[in-house]
């Protein structure tokens, strides 16, 4: 979402006046990349659908490029503020895949497999052999399918707010939202979605909870007709296609992350995802919910940078000690037990 650029605005006078934030599509000041000419945006076409990528070059890269696949309400500019922490170590690639952001409208009969293939097309067009893939929420479904179908293109895999199943109540809500979009009831949808993304009051302390909730609501309620049409088609796509498919995943370094108080994709759901990978670590980011990348932006960027450069994830002040999970870990434990007998 376009929230990250908003949260750092000056709000010192909030007690004397209501905060009415602007939600820019892009802020040239956010990373400094535009000023030094090291950002390129390219329009590409895959199977007849135009889409756009953003490439922010690194000074002296020490690892493979970082490809960020965001959630359904995010676009290629949603991660601009994270770039300043990532670009010293790696090239940063973001993208509006077909059907999202400013890309062409994508009919719902094109599913996750198609979007994963579009990611592979993006890397071929950029001449990138392997990436550190960071994929959040809906981007996690696309990222997982990409990992399954194009394993040679993957150096590391980080999944954020990901689950192997869409909760039944959320699926039911999507059907209701589809009807509401047709009626133009965007404000009601915006309130319901904000409540879904944010943890309910009393769940636990979440940083910037009120500000992020307000901004989520305003962004969704302010969607233009093109964005509403894409949102409706996205919901239809979710209902028509497999979110997760239990296919083999390459044995690359993997990390699954959720917010400590994420009630949409809970920590337990995150552990299930990690357990389905060959060998993964799982952790939670303290005092956050489903929007951890926004609520603790600098810490989240630090976690990404550490993971993508094989840095230590132990004893970090902003997240729990990583748990080692995965099919290889389970198999190793079983073999150890057999030997002990």
TrEMBL record:
Domain AB hydrolase-1: 65-294
Alphabetic keyword roster: Oxidoreductase, Peroxidase
Region described as Disordered: spans on this chain: 1-39
TM segment ranges: none
Stored Pfam families: Abhydrolase_1
Protein name: AB hydrolase-1 domain-containing protein
Taxonomy of the source species: Bacteria, Bacillati, Actinomycetota, Actinomycetes, Kitasatosporales
């Amino acid at each position: 979402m376009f929230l990250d650029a908003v949260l750092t605005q000056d709000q010192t006078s909030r007690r004397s006046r209501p905060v009415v934030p602007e939600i820019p599509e892009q802020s040239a000041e956010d990373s400094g990349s535009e000023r030094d000419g090291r950002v390129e945006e390219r329009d590409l076409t895959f199977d007849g659908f135009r889409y756009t990528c953003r490439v922010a070059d690194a000074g002296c890269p020490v690892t493979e490029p970082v490809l960020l696949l965001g959630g359904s309400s995010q676009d290629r500019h949603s991660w601009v503020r994270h770039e300043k922490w990532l670009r010293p170590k790696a090239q940063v690639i973001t993208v509006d895949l077909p059907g999202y952001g400013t890309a062409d409208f994508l009919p719902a009969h094109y599913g996750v497999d198609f979007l994963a293939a579009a990611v592979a097309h993006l890397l071929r067009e950029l001449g990138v052999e392997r990436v550190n893939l960071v994929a959040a929420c809906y981007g996690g479904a696309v990222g997982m399918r990409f990992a399954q179908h194009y394993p040679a293109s993957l150096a590391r895999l980080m999944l954020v707010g990901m689950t192997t199943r869409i909760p039944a109540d959320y699926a039911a809500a999507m059907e209701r939202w589809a009807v509401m979009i047709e009626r133009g009831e965007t404000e009601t949808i915006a309130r319901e979605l904000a409540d879904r993304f944010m943890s309910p009051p009393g769940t636990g302390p979440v940083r910037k909870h009120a500000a992020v909730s307000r901004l989520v609501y305003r962004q969704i309620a302010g969607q233009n007709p093109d964005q509403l049409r894409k949102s409706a088609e996205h919901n239809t796509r979710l209902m028509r296609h497999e979110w997760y498919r239990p296919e083999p995943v390459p044995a690359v370094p993997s990390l699954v992350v959720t917010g400590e108080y994420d009630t949409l994709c809970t920590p337990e759901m995150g552990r299930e995802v990690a357990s389905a990978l060959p060998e993964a670590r799982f952790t939670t980011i303290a005092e956050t919910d489903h929007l951890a990348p926004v609520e603790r932006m600098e810490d989240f960027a630090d976690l990404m940078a550490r993971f993508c450069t094989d840095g230590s994830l132990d004893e970090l002040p902003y997240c729990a000690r990583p748990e080692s999970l995965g099919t290889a870990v389970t198999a190793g434990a079983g073999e150890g037990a057999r030997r002990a007998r």
